[in-house]
TrEMBL record:
PANTHER family: SUCCINATE DEHYDROGENASE [UBIQUINONE] IRON-SULFUR SUBUNIT, MITOCHONDRIAL, SUCCINATE DEHYDROGENASE IRON-SULFUR PROTEIN. PROSITE patterns: 4FE4S_FER_1, 4FE4S_FER_2. Keywords: 2Fe-2S, 3Fe-4S, 4Fe-4S, Iron, Iron-sulfur, Metal-binding, Oxidoreductase, Tricarboxylic acid cycle. It comes from Mesobacillus jeotgali. Residues 146-174 form the 4Fe-4S ferredoxin-type domain. It comes from the Bacteria. Its EC number is 1.3.5.1. Belongs to the succinate dehydrogenase/fumarate reductase iron-sulfur protein family. Its cofactor is [3Fe-4S] cluster; [2Fe-2S] cluster; [4Fe-4S] cluster. This is succinate dehydrogenase.
Length: 253
């Protein structure tokens, strides 16, 4: 460890959901291969700011520490991303950490992502199985469809795409790109397709596809490279067909 090299963090803090945010600066000794999470853990171990004043530890969410769970999302140097995969060596200093403002702030960098999970409930983002008895093996998915469906299944519900989307905010009920892409995923599943029409009806209503402004920020920010805009385009076609079915009252459209 270098005796002279340090890393400076400017962290947006908020003591309660209703209190005003403020900034606090921390200076840490540099370590090779340091990521943002390890820096936050160091501050938690010794919560002293750059003025030498004792302060409270930073609050943030984390779990897997390997970019799988999506819990540690925050805004790093103006960009929403995962703090576990954000390496200090690749970040411009001072490193600025802020919570994702699309979601209500609980404390400091910790946010309440209930909005996203409630949207997944609205679109029934699951495969309906009775579960009370052995149904036997389900129908097989064609390999070509399985390959692109697997790409959609990589979603870790991190909320980064909603933070990047200009149409998802506290003045809009737009469910955002993540739940929309999950509609496409579960509608592609042979058993999940049993609720295909119901899911499409949901996203044809308020807060659904019509609220997408096609900014494409979501696909650029997704840490898993999920083709979110491709899903939205496919759903536009599917909802058009569903509208014809509704109008003509036919399953043959």
């Amino acid at each position: 460890m270098s005796e002279n090299k340090t890393v400076t963090f400017v962290i947006s803090r908020q003591d309660t959901p209703d209190s005003a945010p403020y900034e606090e600066t921390f200076v840490l000794d540099y370590r090779p291969n340091m990521n943002v999470i390890s820096a936050l853990m160091e501050i938690r171990r010794n919560p002293v700011n750059s003025k030498g004043e004792a302060t409270t530890p930073i609050a943030w969410d984390m779990n897997c520490l390997e970019e799988v769970c999506g819990a540690c999302s925050m805004v790093i140097n103006g960009r929403p991303r995962q703090s576990c995969s954000a390496l200090v060596d690749q970040l411009e200093q001072p490193i600025r950490l802020e919570p994702m403002r699309t979601f209500p702030v609980v404390r400091d960098l910790q946010v309440d992502r209930s909005r996203m999970f409630d949207s997944l409930k609205r679109v029934k983002a699951w495969v309906p199985i009775d579960g009370t008895y052995d149904l036997g093996p389900g129908p097989r998915m064609p390999e070509k469809k399985r390959q692109w469906a697997y790409e959609l299944s990589k979603c870790m519900t991190c909320g980064v795409c909603l933070e990047a989307c200009p149409n998802v905010n506290d003045k809009s009920d737009f469910i955002g790109p993540q739940p929309l892409s999950q509609v496409r995923l579960f509608n592609a599943h042979p058993t999940g397709a049993l609720n295909k029409g119901e899911r499409l009806e949901t996203i044809m209503g308020d807060g659904g596809l019509a609220n997408c402004g096609n900014s494409q920020n979501c696909v650029q920010s997704c840490p898993k490279g999920i083709p979110l805009t491709t899903s939205i385009a496919a759903l536009n076609r599917d909802t058009t067909l569903q509208a014809f079915k509704n109008f003509f009252g036919s399953d043959q459209v």
